[in-house]
Amino acid sequence: MSRPKSRIPLILGLTVAGAGGYYLYAAGGDPKVAQKKVEHDAASASAKLRGDLPSSGKEAQKQGEELSKKAGAAIDSTVGDVRAKLDQADAKVSAKLHEADGKFQQLKADGSKQLDQARKDTARELKDSADSFDKTVEKKAAEAKSGISSWFGFGK
């Protein structure tokens, strides 16, 4: 015996026999009920392939438009909320920046006053030290002068 060149007819025959057995078994052995079930499943498969499902065509387009409108509204709402929050944050940052600038100016003024006061105090202390040094030098010079003059008989 020669082998057939293709096994496709055998596979198709077994598939059809298996499907027939399934429908006959599911119908409880009644061939008329099995035939109705096959026709119903075939019609359902055909409807799916043709696109006659309830949510196809114009109805699907309407549903898509409604969903896109809802999504667009949600996105617009979210963008609006984000913008409002950004504006609030910007206002807070501006207020804090103004407050920090005021504190900086106050510290700058206080630092300038303290620096000026320290300069004046240092100048006064330096002047007092110089005056004290001058007095001490003049006193010692006078004492030395009187000591030297007394050697030559001009002093006390």
Topology (elements, then pairings):
Layout lengths: L7 H19 L4 H20 L7 H94 L5
Helix pairs in contact: 1-2
Task: Write up what this structure looks like.
It contains three helices and no strands. It is mostly helical. The longest helix has 94 residues, at 58-151. It is rod-shaped, with a radius of gyration of 55 Å. The chain starts with 7 loop residues before the first helix and ends in a 5-residue tail after the last helix. The model has no long low-confidence stretch (mean pLDDT 85).
Assembly state (oligomeric) = single chain
Q: What's the average pLDDT?
A: 85
**Structural class determined from secondary elements:** mainly alpha
Rounded Rg:
55 Å
Helix fraction by DSSP (H/I, runs of at least 4)? over 70%
Give the N-terminus to C-terminus distance in angstroms. 165 Å
Number of helices: 3
Strand content: under 5%
Shape: rod-shaped
The SSE string, one letter per element, is HHH
For the biggest sheet, the summary is: none
The overall strand count is: 0
Low-confidence stretches: none
